[in-house]
Amino acid sequence: MSYFTRSADPSAVTGWRSPAVLLMIMAGAMQLSFAAWWNLMNNFAVQELSFTGREIGIQQSIREIPGFLSFAAIYFLLVMREQTLAYISLAFLGVGVAVTGYFPSAMGFYVTTFVMSVGFHYYETMNQSLSLQWLPKATAAASMGKIISVGAFAQLIAYGLIFIGWKAFDLSFTTVFLVAGGLTLVVLAGVVAMFPNFREGTPQHKKLILRRRYWLYYALTFMAGARRQIFTVFAGFLMVERFGYHVHEVAGLFLLNGAFNMLLAPKIGQLIVRFGERKALMFEYVGLILVFVSYAFVTNATVAASLYVLDHAFFAIAIAIKTYFQKIADPADIAPTAGVAFTINHIAAVFIPVVFGLVWLISPAAVFLSGAAMALVSLFLSSMIPPAPEEGREVNFWFQKQTPQPAE
After folding, report:
1. Please, what is the Cα angle at 92 between 62 and 14, to 5 degrees?
2. What is the CA radius of gyration of the chain?
3. Do residues 200 and 81 make contact, with C-beta atoms less than 8 angstroms apart?
4. CA dist., res. 173 & res. 99, Å (int)
5. Domain extents in the chain
6. What's residue 406's pLDDT?
7. 102 CB neighbour count, 10 Å cutoff
8. For 170, how many CA atoms within 13 A lie in the half-sphere containing its CB?
9. What pLDDT is stored for residue 11 in this prediction?
10. Under 8 Å between Cβ of 376 and 227
């Protein structure tokens, strides 16, 4: 019944060996190591390596290089299946995290970050592609919400163990990195043993795909990548550098984030199904504008922590960008476009951490106000999503003056 001994039609398998359950378990496996790495990353950089905004910017730009190169996934698919590449990517992620603590230098951290990031970004590319292929359009957003919820539960396990055990057992960075990465590898081994090799549905193009009619999806993806860097790099760094959060306190903050995601993500998925991608994304971007402006002027550690949790709560709504594409896409375009989309998502991510790391040295407020401006651009773009997007109806230019129809 393993990946090596059984092939199955993804639409015919139900129960605990279904593709949806596989996606959920892989999401959990990914978060076991990545969540722990993300929890420790800023403290490890500041306390062990004495990083400033300059070094953290370089490290985060290195982390985003594999994301920028995600388009190359389509070439790996010439020699392996998407499910296989997802498994190999999880292995890279686990190994990269596990060995991080054994290289306590700036160069060592840069290298292990790169290895971890190759695994993370190529897994996410395959996860997006497989989700859009395996999950029915009518309920994809709700199913993706459940997948995010399982990943959030794995985050809770990682953050909870760090929160409880860091001081109680006097844990070290090396130990936590090793255990977290090792857990991902153990779960991966179980997945390979228990789940079949799911056959592909619609044959995917094995070349890069760029289509003019997908331009709004590309634009939303680009802005999401640019804007998210402000949160992932600098909001967390703000908590450690300005407000002096320790490892267990950061873990407690992430624990709240994981709890919110676990409870809210399935409901957010259902709301996207009910209200549509356009309304969901516009709601997200209005909220993010308010959050980023507040970041720029916050002086209280508790208020900053509240903003961090609220900011993270908006992440699940990004499901709507994926389901918007699922509705307008040629099914054969999904895998190649997933790679292209991740590259587009990371164009800005490669240089924003370095550039804004230097801006941070002058004015942290300017970094977050720039994030608010990015959210404003995203708000305008999302307003052009049609109420019912489909192939042939990808964009609604609501702001253009309509030509009057002649009277009959």
Report:
1. 125
2. 21
3. yes
4. 11
5. 7-382
6. 46
7. 12
8. 0
9. 65
10. no
Residues 59/110, Cβ–Cβ less than 8 Å: yes
pLDDT along the chain (408 residues), means of 10: 69 75 93 90 86 80 83 84 93 96 92 95 89 79 84 84 82 92 96 85 70 92 86 81 79 78 82 90 94 91 87 83 90 80 77 83 91 95 93 85 49
For domain 7-382, which architecture applies?
Answer: Up-down Bundle (1.20)
Q: For position 81, what pLDDT does the model report?
A: 87
Is 313 exposed, middle or buried, given 0-12, 13-18 or 19+ CB atoms closer than 10 A?
buried
φ/ψ of residue 197, rounded to 5: -85, 105
pTM score of the predicted model: 0.74
Sign of the CA dihedral with 93 first, then 95, 96, and 100 last: positive
Residue indicated by tokens 């990517």: 89
Rounded alpha-carbon distances, angstroms, from residue 124 to 36, 56, 156, 336: 17, 23, 20, 13
38, 155, 250 from 167: Cα distances, Å: 18, 19, 13
Q: Which pair of tokens denotes residue 175?
A: 């130990």
Give the residue carrying structure tokens 């997908």.
214
